[in-house]
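explain this.
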Amino acid sequence: MVLEGDLDGDEDVELLDLAVQSAEHSGKRVVVDLSGVAYLGPEAFNTLLIPLQRGHALPWLIGPLPQHVEHLLTVTGTREHFRVFPTLPQAAEAARDSTPDRPPEH
């Protein structure tokens, strides 16, 4: 899915959650393009973390990530838990070469 603009309202979070849930239920890998996001609010960010709580892998993120998103991932300590790719073709290539999504083992 491609996200753009400011993602900070209740409607934005609800739509993002529905999209992530739909992708999870389809059994397909969730890939989120954040390159066009001007602002990622805390609720929207938390929505990207919810799949892990549901027993699914976190979405793969496509960039280039805006500086504020990189900062958010770094200060929250979640950067290492997301797979981040500079482009969609690179994520697609990695998906072809990988096993199905599973939550990371800690």
